[in-house]
Amino acid sequence: MKKEKLLIGRRDKADFPDLELEEIEVKVDTGAHTSSIHCHDIEPVDIDGKPHVKFKLLDPEHPAYNHKEFCLPIFKSKFVKSSNGVKELRCIIRTRILISKRPFLIELSLTDRSEMKYPVLLGRKAINGRFIVDVSLLNDNYNNRKNAL
Predict the structure, then answer these.
(1) Which neighbouring-strand residues pair with 54?
(2) Count of domains observed in the chain
(3) How far is CA 65 from CA 19, 33, 37, 71, in A?
(4) Residue 29: predicted pLDDT
(5) Where are the beta strands (DSSP E) in 31-124?
(6) Maximum C-alpha span of the chain
(7) What was the pLDDT predicted at 146?
(8) Cβ pair 107, 75 in contact under 8 A
(9) Which has fewest Cβ within 10 Å: 10, 93, 97, 122?
(10) Looking at the domain assignment, is residue 40 inside a domain?
(11) CB-based contact 7:56 (threshold 8 Å)
(12) Model pTM score
């Protein structure tokens, strides 16, 4: 049985329970292949012979900044072309995202998005088959959907 696709706007809010983040602003970008999240102090490390990555999410000025350092397995590393056309090798993690209390497993590239307006970019790979994007909607729909459930 095929699940119904959720309606989301060009900007929305999402929860990332594995990263201890709630109601984080997300920019939906159907032009981007890979999703990404803003972090700093990104450091690939080896733990028991397996690749992991240490990082801190968001900036200290962000209201959701939690001062925590995370260390997660690297799902893969790949070159990603940023919006300014520069290719960089990024660590990709897999994590859960909750939109309208519905969980999805997505891949997130870890990168410095401090110059960007939104800390999370939700790309085509995460959107495909799960969401319908209505560009007239903004994140005020997040609260309406959350309260309706």
Answers:
(1) 43, 71
(2) 1
(3) 11, 26, 13, 16
(4) 92
(5) 35-47, 50-57, 69-73, 76-81, 87-99, 102-111, 120-122
(6) 48
(7) 46
(8) yes
(9) 10
(10) yes
(11) no
(12) 0.86
DSSP strand pairing (76-81 vs 87-99): antiparallel
- Alpha-carbon distance of 149 to 1, in angstroms, equals 21
| Sign, CA torsion 106/18/9/115 | negative
In a domain, 1, yes or no: no
Distance from chain centroid for Cα 68: 17
pLDDT per residue of the chain (149 residues) written in tens, 0 to 9: 567 888 888 999 999 999 999 999 999 998 889 999 999 999 999 999 999 999 999 887 877 777 889 999 999 999 988 777 788 899 999 999 998 888 999 999 999 888 888 899 999 999 998 999 988 887 654 445 444 44
Assign residue 125 the CATH number of its domain. 2.40.70.10
Where in the sequence is the domain holding 137, given as residue range(s)?
6-148
Instruction: Please name the residues in contact with 77: beta carbons below 8 A apart, sequence gap of 6 or more.
Output: 44, 51, 89, 90, 91, 92
